[in-house]
Each structure stands twice: as C-alpha cells, then as structure tokens.
Amino acid sequence: MSDLHELTVAALAARLKAREVSAVEVARHFLSRGQAHASLGAYLATDEAVTLTQARAVDAQIAAGTAGVLAGVPIAHKDIFVTRDFASTAGSRMLEGYRSPFDATVVRRLGEAGAVTLGKLNCDEFAMGSSNENSAFHPARNPWDSSRIPGGSSGGSAVAVAARLAPAATGTDTGGSIRQPAAFCGITGIKPTYGRASRYGMIAFASSLDQAGPMAHTAEDCALLLSVMCGPDLDRDSTSLDLPAEDFTRSLDASLDGLRIGVPREFLGEGLSADVRAAVDAALAQYQKLGARLVEISLPRTQLSIPVYYIIAPAEASSNLSRFDGVKFGHRAKQYADLNDMYRKTRAEGFGDEVKRRIMTGTYVLSHGYYDAYYLQAQKIRRMIADDFQQAFAQCDLIAGPVAPSVAWKLGGHGNDPLADYLADIFTLPASLAGLPGMSVPCGTGEAGMPVGLQLIGNYFDEAKLLNAAHRFQQATDWHQRSPQGF
Ligand code: GLN
Predict the structure, then answer these.
(1) From the CB of 130, is ligand 1 less than 6 Å away?
(2) Do 159 and 140 touch, CB atoms closer than 8 A?
(3) How far is the CA of 174 from the centre of ligand 1 (A)?
C-alpha cells in the first residue's frame, strides 16, 4: 500500500470504507512520511500515540458500520485551531506548550465525521504573514523548491498537502492565508463565505475577517471537507450563519455552458508578473473551451484594499491579542517588579516583531484623535469594496484572476520589509474584506517551474458554484495532479 499518499481524500475514504486498508495503516503511512520529510518544517506538533488511538477507534466504527463520511481519512490542522489532544500555539512563543481544554468546532466536526488527526501545522504567528517566516518556531519550506517560501499564513498546511504528508489540511484565511499558500504550493483551497465555518476555537486574529477552510489536491476533496466543516454554531460564534449544513459536492459536475466569468481589469494590470499572467490567461482560455464566457469587469478599489485591510486587521488584532497578558494562559515572564511590569515583560518576550508591529498599528488607528481619520475611513471604504463586488456580480456569475502577483519568492527574499509582504496580498484582500467565498486552483507554472494559482471568487453562499467551476477545470487539466519532485 505504498501509494496511499497519492490518493485523493475521496479515493482514500472509499478504500477505507471497503476495508481494503485500515485507518491505522493509513495513519502510520502518513506519520512516517511526515517524519521522513521533517526538514520541510510543516509540523509543529505530532503525537503518534494520539493519532493511532484515534485511528483504532475509527477502525472499530468502520467494523461496526457506524463510521462517518471521512472515516479514517487523516488530516492535519493549522496550529491556529485549538485541540485537546495536541498543544496549540498559533505559531507563537506566547502559547508554547499551551493545551486547550476543548476542540475547535471545525476540528470537532471533522473528528465526528471520522477524520484522524495527524498533528498541528506550522503557520505565521497568530496567522499574521504571507510567507510562514513569521512562525516563532521555524519556517516551512516549499516542496517545489526548498529555498522558497510556501506562502502564508497557512504555510504548513500547504506544505503538508503538496508534499503528500497529509491528504488534506485545514487552514484559515483572514486576508488570503488559504488561497495564497495553496497557489504557491500547487494545491486547491477554499475560503467559504464569512460566517459559514464556526470561528469557535480558532485563535482570533481579526474576527470580522477570519474564516476556516480546507486545503487539498482537488476541488472534489475540498467540497467533501467543506461540507463537514461548515454549519451553524450559533451558541458559540455570534457571527456563525444560521443556515443549514450544505452538501457542497452536489453540483460538481454541472455544465459550465453559458457561465459568465468576470475578469477584473485591475487584477491584470501593473504589478502582475508576466509568468503568472500567462498561466492565468491560459486558464481563462480553458474556461472558454468549457463553455464559459469572459466578461471584463472592474473592481475599482482593488488598490485601496491594502491600506484598508492593514488598518482593520491590526485594529482587531490589537484588541484580540490583549488577552495574552500572562495572567490567564500562555507565557508569563519569570521575573518582574509589579503587575504592570509583568504585563510588559510577558508581552515583550512572548510576541514576535510582526505581531508587535500590528498591535502598535492597531492601537494607533483606534486611538482617540486618529480613529476617525483611519479606522472609520477604512470601514467606509470596506463597505464600498463590498458594493463594488455586488455591481460586478450584476454582470457575471463568478470572478476569476490571479491569487498573487508572483510565484513563491525565496526565503528571506523580502528581507525585513513587511510592506513587500503586504503588497503581495493585493488580489486576495478584496474578497476577504467583502466576506465573499474565494478559492485557489492550480493552473500552471511560472518562473523556475513554480506553481501558479487561479483565484475564483463567488458571490455570498456560492461555494457550490465555485467548486463546480474548479472541478470542471480539473477534469480538463492536470495541474492539480502534479507533484514536486521526490514527493
Ligand atoms: N497576509 C495577510 C496578513 O498578514 C493575510 C493573513 C491571513 O489571511 N491570515 O495579514
């Protein structure tokens, strides 16, 4: 059974259900791949005993005929989700070794469906970053070229899937953190409409933007996982949508005949590298072959999404991260003079540079005298960005464009320039600010053979439409089936 890591979630689930392989065998196979490729830095925590205990329990359910749809499918979680059985750090020294007394709702739902947890995946500290280099522990490396970043902040998730250390992983997307690492590592990922997936147990970064989603090889696998992950959680997350759980696989095969795909002219202009442009153009031509019609649209405030996001996200982060004060959980400074000194030292020691930068920016834009000039203005423009999308969706069914302006850059390539990272978020931020569902689909290769992702953005609640468009594309292309050499 040496090919287990080459199977999709759907194929693996079928083999497990037919009892051609046991959950324990599958778990062992992926655990040993994780160990063999530890130098990629994908994992922050694994625990063989815990994983195998879960797998044994699922094997018993399979034998009893009571197993869920993902019975025995191993999955790894971004370390921003809290888990009872593994430490949860959010990639931060502040939470090193922290154990949650409960599982995040998304983790619980996947577990109830029979998924087996392989461990916790590396990420930028508190999900702040675009390269995974902001992890307090170690960077993760792109399996297509280990001298390059895998993207972020769900970098470990993208690496684990791309290197086939796990058939699928969870990620979170606040401003692009599922879509961008999926694009950089040649895998498929979807961020649903804001409110679809419960944020309960997701360590908060920017609460009005944070959203969970799956990362896998195919749109079909993402649809399977997303159907399990989403659903109302009204008692635990006040922004959870009161909509019944949906089967997102229901229309994967629907025809794309007559589908109107909007291409925002602002996504193809200045700043987009030629190699990414070529791959995106080829993907759009493929969609025309599949029966879709391309419509030029405009998202005129695309550029403003950067300053708007980098005001709103830090503002919310500065508030969310105030809970890390050394009192309730996580790190506490060893020596201090008094209470204020304890707070100060704890936070100085526990947080990394980027987190501190965001707390300072956020505190500043929320402070008296600057609130109107920055935070309030940003909120107004955020609403206009959402309105721009609604105007665009009057002319088209879906929107398509690049995920990022370039392929994955070299580790250290942006030096100590946070602005270079921020600017690279330009194409993912608009959908995040509007709360729209978005996905990344492998669509070609660019510079140095690195993967390129096509971004698809849908209107609210149109996840099934996005997954349908991605699935049909994947039936006509093989970009999603390619693996980096040696994996
Ligand atoms: N790169 C963006 C940031 O650093 C997005 C991160 C995310 O989506 N979690 O804020």
Answers:
(1) yes
(2) yes
(3) 6
The token pair at 388 is: 């721009």
Q: Which amino acids are annotated catalytic?
A: 78, 153, 177
Residue 20 structural domain: 4-255
For the stretch 183-229, pLDDT in tens is 999 999 999 999 999 999 999 999 999 999 999 999 999 999 999 99
Q: Collapsing DSSP states into helix, strand and coil, what is residue 401?
A: strand
Which ligand 1 atom is at minimum distance from the Cα of 176? 8
Side-chain-facing half-sphere of 115: CA atoms under 13 Å: 27
173 Cβ below 6 A of ligand 1: yes
Is 349 a domain residue? no
Q: For ligand 1, atom 10, which residue shows the shortest CA distance? A: 128
| Residue 179 belongs to some domain of the structure | yes
Confidence grade of residue 172 (pLDDT, cut at 50, 70, 90)? very high
Q: Whole-angstrom Cα distance, residue 414 to residue 238? A: 38
Ligand 1: does its nearest atom lie under 6 Å from the Cβ of 227? no
Q: Answer yes or no: is 427 within a domain.
A: no
Domain count, the chain: 1
Compute the Cα dihedral for 76, 402, 226, 467 and give only its sign: negative
CA of 433 from ligand 1 middle (Å) equals 12
| Residue 207: CATH number of its domain | 3.90.1300.10
pTM: 0.98
Atom of ligand 1 nearest to the CA of 127: 9
